Amino acid sequence: MKMPASTVDRRRLVRRHNPVLTAAHPTAALTLGNGDAALTVDITGLQTFPDAHELVPDPHRVAVAGIDGLPEQRVRVFDADDFQIPLRTQSSWGWYRTRTTREFDRDETVTRYDTARGAVPYLDRMGLQRAGDEIADEFAAGAWFHYNPRRAHLGRLALTPPVGRPDRIDVTAVRDPRTELDLWSGRVHAQFVLEGESVTVTTVAHPEKDVFAVSVESPLLQHGWGVAWIFDTQPDDFATFELPLEESTHWERHTPGHWTARRRIETTAYRVDMSTNGGLALRGADATVATSDGERLEVVVSLHADDSVDDLRQPTYGQVARAAETWWEGYWSSGVAVSFEGSDDERATELERRVVLSQYLAAVNSAGSTPPAETGLTYNTWTGKFHLEMHWWHAAHFALWGRGHLLERSLGWYHSALDAARSTADWQGYRGARWPKQTDPSAAESPSNIGVFLVWQQPHIIHLLELLRQEGRGSEFLRTHYPLVEATAEFMADFVEERDGAFHLPPPIIPAQESYLADRRTNADPTFELAYWSWALEVANEWRSQLGLGVQPEWERVAQNMTMPTLLDDGTYAALRTPPHLIRKDHPSMLMGLGWLPPTDIIDADIMSETLDAVWDRWDLQSSWGWDYPVMAMTAARLGDLALAFDALLLPSPKNEFLANGHNPQIPGFLSLYLPANGGLLSAIAHIVGAIRAGDREPDGWRVTYDGAPSPSPSPSHAAAAAV
Q: What b-and-e string marks burial along 555-587, b requiring 16 or more CB atoms within 10 Å of the CB?
């Protein structure tokens, strides 16, 4: 018997979790954006104090190449002071490449691996080094292709003192700050005292255009204070073989209150239009300042992916603010809403806060025209490139929560990348399309001693498309995107090796649990990937059936005859068939075979239950990542243990903490936020609500109220299925 959905006061639910900042801190940052462009602001509602937010290198980090294994993670308690969130303005289209001290060729990055089909080339001549680390010459080419192109920081909006004073003010000069992000309208509203005068700043991003608008009210404006757009030098670290950047700015005045800047970073060119109800004046070569004789100043900044001037029309602050309010009200009013109000469990309010803020962060960072980076459009990690094995974590929840149109925005990139993925497969001697792990808009694979051996991103596009189909897409959707399904399935069916009537995932391979990187030449048959291969090929054939094409026999034979996963001596699932069969660090990826995935013939539910218990009792959570807790929760929900699912999402761990702005820090000095964790949380909540809809009882102490229903509803747990 399914539970009826209950009514949720959505506006009240959302606004009771508005982030409010009352003190400056390196992580006290809020991001405004639309999925394709974003601006991250500090306590002033602008980007006034960039130095206070810059990443500080972790003094305990030991730089290693990581050729023979992942570095050990130091045991530490969580401390927010270990993290910083930089103030950047980024987009899906703004990228640049560095020049180098010598020319590099991709052939320098290649190693050939012996396989049953012959030698197969991989772009693996790159370790775990960051650009500022020492890099041996043998890895220099791989490092350059790994780092380039980089996502660009496009400029900065800052509160600026009058002419004749230092351009930057000290963060301690701001008194009594209160900065609130109103989630329902998409606005940041900052109030503070500066030099004895009140200042009110409201900042907003346009939901459909790469436009940001600011309103400032303060008596300080009559004393020469203003708002500047500043082209900072690119803040990324560079390797010793990369030459200093050539950056330039050319300004063009249209009216006293509307100027255009053409900015160049090496060969990358883009345009910025700045307009104001006051006047504009240059402040050095790379900044212009808007000022006003009155006590109110409005500024609008538009970003454009090329430097041509074909349309000079600028929206007003009011138009941007109204567009944002309409879009965000529509966003929160659509899809699924989940509330834990009325729960007796003292953790319920915190979980609800994480869920609401994760929905906001996903829309801002992960709903663009390309797959997102792990830190979205907030700042660069891995030089701003996106990781396709993470795209499911970033975006699957959009379909599960009834907002699949936001996931659809990125499907065009897969079509544009299909030729490159086919070329990779052909270069390696396979049919179909092999999707890259770490890439950029060009779809070129980044050299890596880990990424190029991962395969769990291969079925993702089938999985994401299937979620959208189940949300309610029709035959036109299937016809449009079937080429992606077909090319992916062709590779998957060709990649396996058949022995004794069973199909295997052969070396070289690294499972989702990357701890096995040193054994890539011998790794075989990772448990999760075996189940994923079988499930995705069955789905690919279901698409063919829906389109009237008939079953593809090879796909069916592989799907139905994937080898069974390996069991450990205690009867639980190993991570893979080959030694070392299980390392209790990093991702417990074998759990994903049931939970993250629906039931398959590959995975036994009772064995998975025992495996979940073993992970819970004996896993090194210090080495985990933020999406591992949703993995445990989804497996628990699929098995009918919703109490354990809630406990997993709220498990105390230094990798499972969420800041006031909703971010989940992971690695000091590098990964101060981790959007796959936010997306994973939302997917896990969809599994929990789906299990309740299917008949599972709410755990003691929890009250789950929802509007709408996750679509598709995850397959019911075995216990619930038996009761229906």
A: bbebbeebbebbbeeeebbbbbbbeebbbebbb
Establish whether the linkage from the previous residue to 676 is cis, with ω within 30° of 0.
Answer: no
Domain that holds residue 219: 92-96+149-332
pLDDT at residue 710 tops 80: no
- Using the structure block, give the residue that is written with the tokens 């790794």: 523
277 and 175, same domain (yes or no): yes
State how far the Cα of 642 lies from the Cα of 650, in Å rounded to an integer: 13
Tokens representing 550? Answer: 């008939």
Exposure class string for 118-131: b at 16+ Cβ within 10 A, else e: eebbbbbbbbbbbb
pLDDT of residue 63: 84
- The residue ranges of DSSP E strands in 568-712, in sequence order, are 705-707
Residue 632: C-alpha distances to residues 3, 65, 599 (Å)? 24, 31, 15
Residue 17 pLDDT exceeds 60: yes
* Per-residue model confidence (pLDDT) at position 712: 53
Q: How many domains does the chain have?
A: 2
pTM: predicted TM-score of the whole model, two decimal places: 0.96
Give pLDDT tens digits for 47-104: 999 999 999 999 888 888 877 788 877 788 999 999 999 999 999 999 999 999 999 9
Q: For the segment 269-322, what is each residue's pLDDT rounded down to a tens digit?
A: 999 999 999 999 999 999 999 999 999 999 999 999 986 666 778 999 999 999
Residues 566, 567, 573: CA angle, nearest 5 degrees: 95
Q: Phi and psi for 638 in degrees, rounded to 5?
A: -65, -30
Query: Whats the size of the chain, residue-wise?
Result: 724
d(CA 214, CA 299): 5
- CA–CA separation, 70 vs 585, rounded Å? 10
DSSP 186-220: TEEEEEEEETTEEEEEEEEE-SSSSEEEEEEE-GG
Q: What is the mean pLDDT of residues 661-666?
A: 98
Residue 722 confidence (pLDDT): 28
Residues 194 and 250 placed together within one structural domain of the fold: yes
Tokens of residue 720, six digits: 């619930």
Let me know: does 511 contact 523? Beta carbons within 8 Å.
Answer: yes
Structure tokens of 491? 């590779």
Shared-domain flag, residues 345 and 294: no
In a domain, 672, yes or no: yes
Q: At what angle do helices 527-546 and 475-495 cross, to 10 degrees?
A: 140
CA–CA dist 375, 26 (Å, integer): 16
Question: Based on the domain organization, do 346 and 262 belong to the same domain?
Answer: no
Say whether both 54 and 22 belong to one domain: yes
What CATH number does residue 314 fall under?
2.70.98.50
Output the pLDDT for position 67: 78
**Residues 200 and 328 grouped into a single domain:** yes
- 262 and 356 belong to one structural domain: no
Q: Which range among 421-430, 475-484, 640-649, 706-715 shows the weakest confidence by mean pLDDT?
A: 706-715
Q: Same domain for 207 and 308? A: yes
Look at residue 549 and give its three-state secondary structure. coil
Tabulate helix, strand, coil % of the chain (nearest 5). 35, 20, 45
Residue 657 falls within a domain, yes or no?
yes
Burial group, residue 307, by CB count within 10 angstroms (0-12, 13-18, 19+) = middle
Taking the C-alpha atoms of residue 638 and residue 719, their distance in angstroms, rounded to an integer, is 9
Answer yes or no: is 208 within a domain.
yes
Angstrom distance (rounded) from CA 530 to CA 528: 5
Percentage of the residues of the chain whose pLDDT score is greater than 70: 97
Does 585 fall in a domain? no
**Helix and strand tally (H, E) in the chain?**
16, 26
Q: Residue 654: in which H helix or E strand, if any?
A: none
| Residue that is last in its domain, among 307, 332, 357 | 332
Q: Which stretch of DSSP H or E encloses residue 602?
A: none
Question: Nearest-CA neighbor of 459 among 539, 548, 398, 552?
Answer: 539
SS3 96: strand
Residue 567 has, within 13 A of its CA and on its CB side, a CA count of 12
